[in-house]
Structures are given as structure tokens and as C-alpha cells.
Amino acid sequence: MNGSETSFRWGNFSHLYIERGAADYPLTWRIRDRFAKARVLEIDDYKAVFARPRQRFQAQKESMKLILAVKKDRFLYDGSGHSQDFSLENFYYNTLMFNCVYNCDYCYLQGMYPSANIVAFVNVEDYFSATRRGIEDRSNPAQPLYLCISYDTDLLAFESVAPYCRAWIEFVHGEPDLLVEIRTKSAAYRAIRDLAPTDRVILAWTLSPEPVAARYEHGAAPLRLRLDAVQAAIDDGWPVRLCFDPVLAVPSWKSVYGELLEETFRRIDPTAVRDVSVGVFRMTKGYFQRMRRQRQDTPLLYGEYVQEGTTVTYPAGQREEMTSFMRQRLGQHFKEDQIGVWT
Ligand code: SF4
After folding, report:
1. What domains are there in the chain, each with its CATH number?
2. What pLDDT score was predicted for residue 319?
3. CB 3.0-4.6 Å disulfide test: which of 47, 69, 249, 276 passes with 51?
4. Pocket residues for ligand 1 (CB within 6 Å)?
């Protein structure tokens, strides 16, 4: 069974919750048209639905509701210490959506949000204005503002509903000091394939061994389709990043991840790839604890973990072995400065 053949499905929303203040945005109308049969409920504030107490994340995943809202503040967040920054100092991310249409067993959103329902923010222009201000105010003007827009969601997977990636790619064309990363586990590259490539947008695919994708990345595309999408993006001239992250301590992880790398570079010419990133499983302690309380059904959360500061991860020896294995294998194809590593 591959990732797209698991029982987890999304694609239709039976209910749209729409903030009164979000009602007249073009994106709201587009989404209302798309889900014309959905029941529409007007609300004052998305938090009244999203942040209700005693919601059950995994039960809601089976039938996610879509909430359309206006983001009022915090259009840029400082890049987290949990991510590779590729030596780019002005590193930020934003949140155009809360939650994700996929349902990976290891996803920290389960521990971060009270609800699995999806919040899509419709005031995209406000994000653009804040990003322009961020570009002007960036601390190192010798480098671009580096902005990850699909940081804790999968925007490309949602592109047929809300064309955020398209909007940002078009925005970037007018912003010479902006570098955007769009990260995905989807095969939905066709949704943006008509757009002219730019070296200021990195299309990043997270690649997982097929047994991992099939078992733990519910709803996401199987590896072969992610690799098809990678090849299509390269053919069209996009800068492409490959992300081996999180590397998981599954049984026989060395041969499982070794095979992933072999398969990847059998299919994809590494000289056509901009760079790669690697990181083993790590998570903020509070999220990890909340996830464990909710989930006894996945072995991923019950291996050997240690706490270092506020981060839960594998013990140092195991972490170093996994990281150096990946680094050594990737070093056969990439220069040191092309490999971003979380350690
Ligand atoms: S694709 Fe990323 S954001 Fe979406 S469920 Fe998986 S880990 Fe979470």
C-alpha cells in the first residue's frame, strides 16, 4: 500500500466556517464556489471554532472542516532552531494556513494545535505588505529575506483549493530581495507548471523511503510520484531542493534510507538539484508529550528518545550515526555547502 492508497482521504469539505470579516475576499468566494454544496456557517472569530476545548485531533482528521479567516497579526515569524537555514541570516516563515491536508504520524501539528480543522487565511495581500516591510527591515541587507511559506503545512497539496503558491510565485517576480521556499510531499506540481520558473523560489520536496511514506505519511504522494514531480520541476528550470527530513529510526533504517538515496539518484541527476537538507526526528517537548497522550497507535512516538533543552530527539550517539550516514552518502553527490544539516 503506498501513501496515496492509505485509508486517509481529503478533498471535500462538508462545512465551511467563514469569519464575517473574511466574507468578501476573492479567495473566500473562490473557495465557496469550489465547495458549493458545503454547509456555510458564519462566525465572528475562527478561534471560537478552532480553539474549542476537548477536541479530538485524529477523529477530526477523518472529516476536516475548513475555516476561512482573516489573519490580524504575525505575518512573519523568526525561523526556528529546528530548521536548516543554509547560512541565510534573514530567515523567516509564515503561516498562510493552520494544519495540513495530510496526516503524518510524526507531525508536530498534532501537539501544537487544539484542532485538526483547517484554517485558511484569505487576506494574502496583508502577508505581502508585511513581507515587503520585512525585506526593508532585514538585518543583513547583503542577503535576501529567506521566507519559508509552507513551513508547517503543505501548501502545494492545497493549491487546487487555495492557490497560495501561485500567488507567492507571482509576488516574488516583483521582489528581487526575496527568496521563498515551498516545501511539499505532494505530486501536485502540475498546479503551478504553467508559471515561469524563477531562481527566487525554491521548490522543495521531502522524500521519504516508500515503506515510511506508505505507513506513516497518510494522504501524501508515494515516493515515485514525488520523484516524477521533482523531475518535471527540474525539466522546467526550477531550483529544486530535496529534503531528507525527518530521518526516522525505523527498523533497518540504514538500508531503508540507503535504498531511498539510491532510488532518488537513479531517477534524479544530482547535478540538477540546488541543494539538499537532512535532519533526524526532533520535536519541541510540549508537542511531543501532547502527541503521546493522544496517540498509542503509532510506534514512531515510543522509541528511545532523549530530551535536550526543550527538544525531544534520539540519543546523541544514534543521532550522530544517522546524520553522518546521510551526510556521507549525500557527500558522494553534493558539495559540503549544498548539504544543510540539522544537528
Ligand atoms: S506534510 Fe508536513 S505538515 Fe503535513 S501532516 Fe505531514 S508533517 Fe505535518
Report:
1. 3-341 (3.80.30.30)
2. 97
3. 47
4. 100, 102-104, 107, 109, 152-154, 185, 220
